[in-house]
Amino acid sequence: MNTVTVRLGKRSYPIYIGEGTLNQLGEFAAKKISPGRCAIITSAPIARHHLKPAVKSLTSAGFTPIIIEIPDGEQHKNLATYLAVIDELVKAKLDRTSTLFALGGGVVGDITGFAAATYLRGVPYVQIPTTLLAQVDSSVGGKTGVDHPQAKNLIGAFNQPTLVITDTKTLTTLPEREYTSGLAEIIKYGIIASPKLFKHLETHKKQITQRNPKTLEHIITESCKIKAHIVAADEKDAGIRQTLNFGHTIGHAIEAASGYKNIRHGEAVALGMIAATKISEDAGLTQTEAERIKKLIANLNLPTKTNVNITKTLTAISHDKKRSDGKTRFIAAQKIGSTCIIENVPKNTIQKALKSIVK
Fold first, then answer.
1. What's the domain range around 35?
2. What pLDDT, in 10s, does the model give residues 223-248?
3. What H or E segment, with its residue span, contains residue 113?
4. Where is the domain boundary, 140, 171, 202?
5. DSSP character for 78?
6. pLDDT digits (tens, 9 = 90+) for 48-98
7. Domain boundary among 152, 171, 190
8. CATH number of the domain that residue 306 is part of
9. Which residues of 183-201 are buried (b: 16+ CB within 10 A; e: fewer)?
């Protein structure tokens, strides 16, 4: 097992990464939180595989959980689902000493974190990510919230978890498409911060696609180290943390343009990263490195083309929450391992980038 710490002074928290850590959930939680009444927020597909060991571990440590199930899928990451969770917390009469446990992927984690930020003006919560994407991205850093029909993640709050329990064994039950989707975020970490990680992904395709436990623990740990370092330096997204948005401005817009249906977040990010390589030409990215990025995305079975509507995607970009003074910011790769921010990218440059990924 590996431990990565997100260093935020008194609000610092550990990320426990390894095979079988779910069975130690209660033990780890009791070190940070007083056992008592709590809620596990999850979805039916996740509950089927992982709820029983979570409940057993928490109960053995003195916690008394209620179970709240929410619908599965990005299309349900909205205010209606959030309010349904709040209704259940009120019904159960949970108080400020109660803890929320997010057992699931990014949607479950984001909604649980937002509910924790707002229920009774704030209760503690624990992330237990069960998808690869959530393990390396959404469970770390405290970004919580829900989508608005016009754009992703417009409603939310920064709210750091008390701890994160990442059990790589949960990845064995993930459908292939869901697993592959998560690889996009790991590729992103290599592009923005670690040529070494990028090279590892290039040379370990077999182990990655076969979900080798040691390989998974390594690439998840390296990804979390990068994100923990960035979050510690810039918790509220005012500077270096914006580099984590590489591929996301267009990726989020693709999701919004598709109505959050028929495309996974990681797939949209993969497409967004390819489009971002076109924009990155102005920042000095060479053709050779651009091709390496595209090749790795394709080799790890992520999409390189989409049939998304360009006009709808451009409209969604105009609603992007990272806009400042009416200008859309793009994170560009100068080379693998280094990025910069480009302000006010011309519309025709964005259109050209979108055309490069449209079938």
1. 2-171
2. 999 999 999 999 998 889 999 999 99
3. helix 106-118
4. 171
5. S
6. 999 999 999 999 999 999 999 999 888 899 999 999 999 999 999 999 999
7. 171
8. 1.20.1090.10
9. bbbbbbbbbbbbeebbebb
